[in-house]
Amino acid sequence: AQSVTQLGSHVSVSEGALVLLRCNYSSSVPPYLFWYVQYPNQGLQLLLKYTSAATLVKGINGFEAEFKKSETSFHLTKPSAHMSDAAEYFCAVKKPSGTYKYIFGTGTRLKVLA
Amino acid sequence: GAVVSQHPSWVICKSGTSVKIECRSLDFQATTMFWYRQFPKQSLMLMATSNEGSKATYEQGVEKDKFLINHASLTLSTLTVTSAHPEDSSFYICSARDPEVGETQYFGPGTRLLVL
């Protein structure tokens, strides 16, 4: 069975500092992986996705993530945090075939301090 | 990018009434749509997978008679919460898969339901 673990339900960083949000997955086959962002009272917006191509994936708003099979990780990073990055971030995993369903992590709330 | 809308964005209803939520893909045809439920400060819980022209597939523990899903066209899926009760109050989010793009789900803005 697949699963996703997001370490740290809350992360605080100073404006301009590095953002690192952690995501580890468990899957019997190399999965597809996604990062979504959710602003208050809104739906989810796709930040980036890994679908077995390049292991370093660049997304919107300056975010990127690296798929590391040996560590079963897909951590999200951004070199310099902006106040507008404050939101909830969800990592999701999907089998590469046989289903379109996602399994979501529990989410990480990012707070950016002025 | 692909756009998914939901209507209404919020609804307040009395206990015992039914509420219908619409999910539309605005610029693509979605053969598969998904319905999620999100409790405050929690993750998304998949309720069901909606396939155009066929019955929805419900996740374990989700009452199909309580949460009726219809996917009558390639751009519209509806979720009806029947005989709503206060415990059904939640944030309901739909997503749609664009088969031309592949694996990505595009999410609607969500519908907040409050049952009094």
Describe the protein in words.
The complex is a heterodimer of chains A (about 110) and B (about 120). Chain A has about 110 residues and is an all-beta fold. Chain A is built from no helices and twelve strands. In chain A, the strands form three sheets. In chain A, strands 2, 5, 6, 10, 11 and 12 form a six-stranded mixed beta sheet that branches. In chain A, strands 3-9-8-7 form a four-stranded antiparallel beta sheet, with no helix packed on it. In chain A, strand 8 and strand 9 form a beta hairpin. In chain A, about 35% of the residues are buried. Helices cover about 0% and strands about 55% of the residues of chain B. Chain B is built from no helices and eleven strands. In chain B, strands 2, 4, 5, 6, 9, 10 and 11 form a seven-stranded mixed beta sheet that branches. Chain B has a four-stranded antiparallel beta sheet with strand order 1-3-8-7, with no helix packed on it. Chain B is globular, with a radius of gyration of 13 Å. The interface of A and B includes residues 102 and 107 of A.
Question: Stretches of chain A where pLDDT falls below 50 for ≥5 residues?
Answer: none
Question: Looking at the structure, what is the overall shape of chain A?
Answer: globular
State the order of secondary-structure elements of chain A, H for helix, E for strand.
EEEEEEEEEEEE
Shape of chain B: globular
Order of helices and strands of chain B: EEEEEEEEEEE
Question: Which band does the percent of strand residues of chain A land in?
Answer: over 45%
Most strands sheet of chain A: 6 strands, mixed
**What is the assembly state of the chains in this entry?**
heterodimer
**How many whole angstroms does the radius of gyration of chain B measure?**
13 Å
- Our estimate of the beta-strand percent of chain B is over 45%
- Give the overall pLDDT of chain A as a whole number: 92
- Which ranges of chain B are low-confidence, i.e. pLDDT below 50, for 5 or more consecutive residues? none
Class from helix and strand fractions of chain B: mainly beta
Major sheet details of chain B: 7 strands, mixed
Give the fraction of residues assigned to helices of chain A. under 10%
Count of helix runs of chain B: 0
Number of helices of chain A: 0
